[in-house]
Here is the input.
Amino acid sequence: MLVFQLMERRGFVRVAAVGALGALVGSPAEASLGRAVRLQELTARSQHVVLGETLDADSVWEQVGRRKHIVTYSRVRALELLAGADPHQDELLVRTLGGYIGELGELVHGEASLAIGSRSLLFVMPVPNALAITAMAQGHYPLLRDKTGAERLQRSPHAAELLGEPGAAVTRLPGLQLSEARSLLKPVRK
Amino acid sequence: MRRARVVSAALGLAVLGATWHASAFCLTHGCNERKQDCGLTSEGCLNNGPLLHWPSSCVSFDVQKDGSPLRELGYDEAHEAVLNGFRQWINADCGDGQHPDVTMSDYGPVECHEAEYNQDAPNANIVMFRDDSWPYQNAIDTLALTTLIFNADTGAIYDADVEVNTFQAPMSLGIVGPGEVDFNSVITHELGHFLGLSHSGVPGSTMNRSYAPGDTAMASIEQDDVNGICAALPPGRAVASTSCEPRHGFSTECALPLTTCGFHPGGAGIRGSLLLAVLGLSAARRRKKPRP
Here is the structure.
């Protein structure tokens, strides 16, 4: 029989001893509700805005806050600097929340996920020992070829539409060719 | 007016099967970028990888016992808002008098306010409040995060936690002033993620990603949300069990902290469990009464 009501179940609580020594390995998937970030703000908050190619990636357990989560470190070849400071290196290490280890997976709806072999426009900011995508998936725009063969920026798979925000980066950048993005970013460069 | 639109739209659900695929809700898939193409469909959904789903017909949830003192949001108010949010989702009209195939079981207040999954210890699916700090990057852009732990092969969800960014966001209940964030809207959206929905591109839908401060419209689900939840938890779906118990059992407390955080596993938990047991007994007795 199907039941569609909320039910209280407090009576059957069996609180297990909290002596699980260090049994803390988790694998979360996260989803966010956020605000749209304007292109100018996104650029200003980013240390580098680069066209990058993801070379490889590795997921590890890492302490975030007070608990361990899966995070993924992607090695990205910096192909072109579009705005921000020169990173002075050919390869960048970009850290994103989520990933897969063994049978467990962590997916962050609002977070970027860099496909190996893909080229993307990336807005990145420094975090300890790596870079992070600024404003999560709002700072990640994969380049894909359209039917005419032209490469165009695409919305990051985990970034939803941000309707009603005409100035938002995620509204303005998808669909543009790289040359158009260069022109758009030129006036807002630091 | 908005509610009336929802009701009238729900009456037309007899053709749901034909309209689901044309709408813009997205289900949650665990696509592994290292193994497969994770491109978007024409509807803007990520459909590769296993579908994330609750394998049991019953899912438990809890609310952090402290609520948010910073935002003067007590446990009772927060708990009621969570209940209202879940009620909307699980009472959605899937047509022919049917509803999403899930029962939500209220396990009451919990001590733990950490998003964690314990592979060898009890767990809890918690709505918690971040009053002191936001542990992730991009705090100013994020109102809340839902964390789902799942089996990467099957998509079976093992655990879910909702973190509300009360540290940064001026969360409010009831009358929501300009610049304030409506907790009812935020929690209803996050509970959609908890139940397996991803973001939607439909303007005005609860699962749309963007939120404008002061807005309260996301607190009530729209037709696109109804279509989504009925697809995520379809009536009569195959389930692996009917147990409401979290994976590896239930605990009101976090597992041992990785760093000093001022709480003490043990004493408070025993008191908490006794209180819950008493509350639960009365609930169990109520349930034994014959129903008309």
User: Anything to note?
Assistant: The two ends of chain A are 62 Å apart (CA to CA). Helices of chain A lie at 39-45, 169-172, 178-185.
